[in-house]
């Protein structure tokens, strides 16, 4: 499938319409971002069932701001439209592979229940 470039316009539909999406927020001037690029591309080839997407934070400043990106690279993972991982820093291939396994293994009923609990507690 390869890596998809995301913009402000197609970010939300991509997250909503795909079961698992990994997003690499990066910048062309960022050395660690450039080093992580091939790792991310290799993962995309290995996992065609997962949408691997990149957001150029220089070109998509508004999207980066809305997503709360303060450091690049930042990796976000969405499962069934829910943000389940967000962490700055480039990941070694083995760590990215482990992360993918953990995300695939998530019980999304349980995740949604915990989100609902937190929302209810915040409202009281």
TrEMBL record:
The keyword Disulfide bond applies. InterPro entries: Thioredoxin (IPR005746), Thioredoxin-like_sf (IPR036249), Thioredoxin_CS (IPR017937), Thioredoxin_domain (IPR013766). Residues 1-105 form the Thioredoxin domain. The keyword Transit peptide does not apply. It comes from the Bacteria. One of its GO terms (molecular function) is protein-disulfide reductase activity. One of its GO terms (cellular component) is cytosol. Keywords: Disulfide bond, Electron transport, Redox-active center, Transport. NCBIfam families: thioredoxin (TIGR01068). Belongs to the thioredoxin family. Participates in various redox reactions through the reversible oxidation of its active center dithiol to a disulfide and catalyzes dithiol-disulfide exchange reactions. This is Thioredoxin.
